[in-house]
Amino acid sequence: MENGPFRVHPLRFQNPDPPTWFDALKKFWADEGFDPSSQNLLLAVSGGCDSMAMLELFHRHVVPIFHCRLFAIHINHGLRPDADDDQYFVEQLCFEKNIPLEVKILDPSTRPVGQSMEMWGREHRYVAFERAQKKFGTQLTLTAHHRDDVVETFCLRMWRGTGFAGMAGISFRRTDEVVRPLLPVSRKDLSEWLITLDQTWKEDSSNTDVTVPRNWVRHHLLPQWRLQEPDVEDRIFHITREVAKLRPLWEKSLDAFYPREEVHIRGGIPMEWLEDENTDAACLRLLLPLLGVARPNPELISEIFRQTRNSRSIQVRVDENMILKGKQGVLIAKRIISASG
User: Fold this and answer.
1) In this structure, how many other beta carbons lie within 10 angstroms of the beta carbon of residue 5?
2) Which of 48, 74, 79, 97 is least surrounded by Cβ atoms within 10 Å, i.e. has the fewest?
3) Cβ contacts of residue 317 below 8 Å, gap of 6+?
4) Which of 340, 297, 292 lies closest to 120 in space, CA to CA?
5) Dist. CA 254–CA 283, nearest whole Å
């Protein structure tokens, strides 16, 4: 059946039974305090397996039960030759499902010198999410992180070194109202469900590059580990959830060792804290907002530690408007004044 430039698949509009893991997922939502009832929800849809499963799940089963309204956003990072194909794919699906879609096209050439591609992409994604939320009037942005993402993140952090808070993996809800509703579901379960729907998705070819640490964990470490311990991923996920429950108490205790009042008194984060090998990422996640860095990401935190522990000076770009630098024994934030300003 054809409809203008789009090919419409009748099977997509049938509503078969929900996936077998849906009831367990709804219980997980209730435990986490997530209730989509009557809310306007913004779904981040890349076109990959994970986001396609989220889109199908909410369109077919969540909306009829919870009476919420869906909107979507697609970020075209412009980093791969098939990025435009991915965008067209998402546009087609949202058109078929009558889901309003916002497309944000990024220009990699605008990335500031000294900012990693990962930090640049993350920064612009979350800015785009905020703007789309305001445009559509949505309460939450949903991303399709799942159990495998949590397990891989845990392994990477243990490999590189992490503190207690880092063992929590990926949080279910961020402070900026970004929620990961598929968090306890495996990639295998998501893909198998899409196959039963006859729903295709777009594969990111970069996911097979095992020189990327996350891909090495995914394609080499975990398969070998699974041969000896078939339930290893379930066990790791359970650990991360237990740590996540304890994080509020942990962060409260951190304030006793790294008092925020000291940051206010000294005008910045003391450099001796950053140079101390016992200081971990959780400390910076608590303290950087005092300098105006509202949502410090892992790449930024890693770069701060790398510079403070390997050089005599520190200058880390946060975004196009701010850098962090050491001055008189403390880490401060400095606004960047553009040439036009």
Assistant:
1) 9
2) 79
3) 112, 114, 115, 323
4) 297
5) 7
CA-closest candidate to residue 12, choices 144, 202, 194: 194
Q: Is 30 exposed, middle or buried (0-12, 13-18, 19+ CB in 10 A)?
A: exposed
Condensed to tens digits (0 to 9), the pLDDT of residues 210-230 reads 888 899 999 999 999 999 999
Q: CA 51, 153, 217, 239: dihedral to nearest 10 degrees? A: -110
Q: How far apart are CA 111 and CA 317, in angstroms?
A: 11
Alpha carbons 73 and 94: distance in angstroms, whole number: 10
Amino acid at site 139 = Q
Helix (H) or strand (E) holding 190: helix 187-196
pLDDT in tens, 277-315: 888 887 888 899 899 887 787 788 888 988 888 877 888
pTM of the model: 0.79
